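USER:
I would value a second opinion on how I read folds in token form. Give me a protein, with the fold worked out from its sequence. Write it directly below this note and I will take it from there.

ASSISTANT:
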Amino acid sequence: MNVQNEFSRYADHYGSYNVIQKKVAERLVAGVKDAPQHLLDIGCGRGAVAEQIAWPYQQLVGIDFAPGMLALHPQGERITCLQGDFDDPKLYASLKATHFDRIFSASALQWSPDLAHTFALIRSLNAPVSLAIFTAGTFGTLFKTAGLPPLLRSADEVERLAKRFFNASCEVVRYSLAFDNTRDMFRYIKRSGVSGNRNVLTYKETKQLMENYPLDRLEFEVLFIQS
């Protein structure tokens, strides 16, 4: 099952599992020191960024490829939700008809297959950015215990790309989330969307990992990019 369908499938449960994404969106929006009026949220999901914006604005356009998420996004006269792929040049060609004062993206761009390509598309809109991207330290101990390489790009790699395309400051922030047991932990991994719902282990391997995982928490690493 592809990522889009997994995100839609768990959309109804997502609110109780996206505690880290909410913290990321809160920090991302808090880093904006002005009050931009025309906003774009790339990979908007169910509206974590929109829910954090406290200032009055004129327009917010949210883009996501999962219709199940868009259906849960806040609605209103000032909000437009569009289904689209953040790697699609045609999407950005259509967005150029609108002026944006700031572009947000929280917890989405780590899944771009070609981040340089995606950054170039975002830059083509000529607006300041506030981006938060999960990086390789996310689930670091879990992948080490499983004997697997990190699922995501390193923070250093993402920062190099960000500074290539944007005049931006970058900051790595780490989070942890504790669980009562490993079963709840792995249920969170599946339903939160943080892993992109990539199945990289067999059932037997997953069972062994649950038995051998040495921590009572999951680790997350996020690079915040502000221009």
